Amino acid sequence: MTDAIDLILFRAAAEPALAARCHRGQLASYGRHGAAAAAERTRDLALDGVHMVAAVDASGEVQAGMRIHERRAGQPLPVELALADRCAIAAAIAAREPAPVVEMSGLWVVEAHRHGPLAAAVTRTAVAACRRLGARSIVGCVHQHVLAFYQRYGAVVEAALGAHPYPSPRYATQVVFSDLV
C-alpha cells in the first residue's frame, strides 16, 4: 500500500511558500535531465496570475507539480520569454485571442514517481483548472521526450513555429496548443 497523495490547486501569490517548494522540486527534477536552465527562467516571475498544482504526500513533501499562467497585458507567458527570439510565438498566441489563452508548464515529478501515474494526475488536474479559469486554449512547449505524453491531453504541435534547441542542444522543443472547446 502506498501513502495517499493529495492534489492541491492553489494561486501561487496566495501560497508563496508552497510555490517556492514546488519550484525547488522542479529545479531538482529538471537538473537531473540537464534542463535546469528552463526551470531557472521562471524563478523570478511574478506570482500574480499563476496557479499551481502540487502533489503532496502524507508527510507534507511535494512529489510533483505544474504551473498554469494566465496571459496578462504586459506579462509575457514563460513560453514567450523562452522562445520569442526563436519563433513568432507571440503572434501565434495572439491569433487565438480574444479567447482566453493560458500556459501550462513546468511539470515535474520526483524520481520515485517518474514512471508512475502521478504526472498524468497532475496534468489532468491542471487541464481541469484551465477550464475553470475560462481558458479556451492552452499553450506550452514540449520536447521530443514528452510530446506523446502531452498529445494524450490534446496537445497539437504548431509546426510553423519550428523545433528549437531549448533549453539545451539535446532537446528539440516545439510549441503546442490544446483547444478546450
Question: Care to give the gist of this entry?
Answer:
The protein has helices at 16-31, 36-40, 78-83, 89-94, 118-132, 147-151, and strands at 5-11, 50-57, 62-70, 101-109, 137-142, 156-157, 163-164, 173-179. It has 181 residues and is of the alpha+beta class.
User: What is the helix fraction of residues, given as a range?
Assistant: 25-40%
Give the end-to-end Cα distance, rounded to a whole number of Å.
38 Å
Tally of helical runs: 6
Structural class: alpha+beta
Instruction: Estimate the global geometry from the Cα principal axes.
Output: globular
Largest sheet: 8 strands, mixed
Q: Rg, please?
A: 15 Å
| SSE string | EHHEEHHEHEHEEE
Q: What value does the average pLDDT take?
A: 92
Proportion of strand residues = 25-35%
Report the strand count.
8
Low-confidence spans: pLDDT under 50, at least 5 residues?
none
How does this structure look, described?
There is one protein chain. With 181 residues, this protein is of the alpha+beta class. Helix content is 29%, strand content 28%. The protein is built from 6 helices and 8 strands. The protein has helices at 16-31, 36-40, 78-83, 89-94, 118-132, 147-151; strands spanning 5-11, 50-57, 62-70, 101-109, 137-142, 156-157, 163-164, 173-179. Strands 1, 2, 3, 4, 5, 6, 7 and 8 form an 8-stranded mixed beta sheet that branches. Helix 5 (118-132) links the parallel strand 4 and strand 5 (137-142). It is globular and about 45 Å long. The mean pLDDT is 92.
Sum up the structure in keywords.
6 helices; 181 residues; 29% helix; 8 strands; 28% strand; eight-stranded mixed β-sheet
